[in-house]
Amino acid sequence: MGASPVYDVFVVGGGINGCGIARDAVGRGFSVFLAEMNDLASGTSSKATKLIHGGLRYLEYYEFRLVREALMEREVLWKNAPHIIWPMRFVLPYAEGLRPAWLLRLGLFLYDHIGGRKLLPATKTLDMRSDPSGRPLKPLFSKAFEYSDGWVNDARLVALNARDAADRGAVIRTRTKVVAAHREGDHWVVTLEDAKSRETEQVRARLIVNAAGPWVDHILTDVVGDKEAHNVRLVQGSHIVVAKKFDDARAYIFQNKDGRIIFAIPYEDEFTLIGTTDRDFSGDPRTVEISDAEADYLCAAASEYFVAPVQRQDIVWSYSGVRPLYDDHASKAQEATRDYVLKAEGGDGAAPIINAFGGKITTYRRLAESMLAKIEGFLGKRGAPWTADAPLPGGDFPQHGFEAQVKRLAADYPFLEASLARRLVRLYGTLARTLLGDAKGLADLGRDFGAGLYEAEVRYLMDREWARTAEDVLWRRTKRGLHFSDGQVAALESFMRGQGA
Ligand SMILES: Cc1cc2nc3c(=O)[nH]c(=O)nc-3n(C[C@H](O)[C@H](O)[C@H](O)COP(=O)(O)OP(=O)(O)OC[C@H]3O[C@@H](n4cnc5c(N)ncnc54)[C@H](O)[C@@H]3O)c2cc1C
After folding, report:
1. Which atom of ligand 1 is nearest to 239's Cα?
2. How many angstroms separate the alpha carbon of residue 249 from the centre of ligand 1?
3. Residue pair 277/237 in contact by the 8 Å Cβ criterion
4. I need a labelling partner for 252 at 20 to 30 A (CA). Which of 16, 151, 267, 374 fits?
5. How much helix, strand and coil, in percent to the nearest 5, is found in the chain?
6. What EC class is this (predicted)?
């Protein structure tokens, strides 16, 4: 039996940052092993507001580097994943007594001009008395600004990065917890524990990337067993989902009296997503939940704007996540920097560990490039940066080609309902065809679990996207959970268990 391999890079964490780094690294020729203790994107990366955005608000904190980088990424990411990322227009009503119009205009001028915008349309001013976006709002708002940003299916962005990394040779291990790591000679010995069997195994690697998000300090303190670490500030953010409040493809960005902003965004065709909050968090990130106070805050903030108030009983779903922000000792949670910081330890004979603190979904690809520069500093140079021009799985069609893809899929699989064909292209892009194979009718897709979820899709997600539980399928790979009854969830769970999941 040969000795077990020594991987070049061991990545802790299957969120957007871990998966983005694994993909970039393996594509440059490094051997990569990634371990995720739960499901892909089960941490913060499925709990975002889901914007690919520069962060208009961050301009107020002079975060020009971050805003510029993030703005530039909008069109790069859209080009590489036009199925799960698309442009969205945002309506920002001007509200008397809050930020002055000249300040908003200045911010949006910068937004339009510092971020290499080519395809996204520019900002314009709206007369809310005549523009349809004024209709669902109280008549207090006569003027608004409309600007561009992007929307992303956050959890799928993670799964697609993992898929691509695996296709290029990376080992992606989910439900596998990193429980210990120690240096041995010039490399690391990492101990992994299987979540189901509790069996442990050891993997050797030349370098560790710590991309554990809210757990990044925990890895340093308890897994590498080093010393106290206080690099991140955990800031909870929650969202509520209600039945659709308006019939427009545009989203709203509302200013609150406390100086914060919230978004109201068209969501999954039939819903409106409202969020988010910002409050310091000190519990276990795995158990984070929206509080009553947060739900009330979001309802009240949205009700300042919508004619029909948003009430607690309107909430059909909510989710909550923890931002692992780099601790820059800002006084308020909302003021803490959203930029990322990478810090390396080791080298000179001691195997290195590089920790990623902070960051945004929007900047994950750039964070990975910066991480690769650091990795190459230790392990030597391999390939050049490559991810700016490489479509993610299923994203190999033109930026404006989504509707054409839906049409072609519907023509080739005429038995699909229009809404199903559209949903499949939104989630899988050109790979919808792989999922459907040579099916000639709905019966060929196997068991119908409800809400347009067929066995063929579940099997695809189990085979190719590491889905193991009904929750993985219903809340992360798809959002069919919004339409499923408890009985349907149980049936899906039992089917997946029967498949050995
Ligand atoms: C409310 C909210 C709204 C947001 N909105 C936006 C937005 O609109 N746009 C945007 O760009 N960004 C947004 N963000 C920021 C973005 O979501 C995060 O920056 C990003 O998801 C962080 O990704 P990550 O990979 O670092 O962390 P995570 O996604 O948390 O991944 C870390 C992973 O490490 C795993 N892990 C931890 N310990 C171990 C271990 N011992 N062994 C194995 N695995 C382990 C965890 O299970 C987890 O899956 C938002 C964040 C929040 C909370």
Report:
1. 1
2. 27
3. yes
4. 16
5. 40, 25, 35
6. oxidoreductase
Chain mean pLDDT for the chain: 95
Does residue 133 line the site of ligand 1, with CB under 6 A? no
Nearest to 358 by CA among 313, 326, 316: 326
Pairing of β 232-243 and β 271-275: antiparallel
Q: Which residues pair with 350 in a beta bridge?
A: 347
Neighbours of 67 (CB within 10 A): 25
Q: What is the pLDDT, as a whole number, of residue 2? A: 53
Measure 125 CA to ligand 1 centroid, in angstroms. Answer: 35
CA 130 – ligand 1 centroid, Å: 41
CA distance 447 to 374: 48
- Going by pLDDT thresholds of 50, 70 and 90, the confidence category of residue 418 is very high
49 lines ligand 1 (CB under 6 A): yes
List C-alpha distances in Å: 28 to 160, 183, 239, 247, 353.
18, 25, 37, 45, 19
Residue 438 Cα, ligand 1 centroid: separation in angstroms?
37
Residue 418, token pair as written in the block: 């229009």
Task: For ligand 1, say whether the CB of 14 is within 6 Å of any of its atoms.
Answer: yes
Q: What is the pLDDT of residues 214-244, one digit of tens each?
A: 999 999 999 998 678 888 999 999 999 999 9
Beta-strand (E) ranges in 185-314? Answer: 187-194, 200-210, 232-243, 251-255, 261-267, 271-275, 279-280
Residue having the nearest C-alpha atom to atom 9 of ligand 1: 51
Structure tokens at 398: 């033109």
362 torsion bin: left (phi>0), alpha (psi -120 to 50), beta (else): alpha
Q: Residue 210 Cα, ligand 1 centroid: separation in angstroms?
A: 12
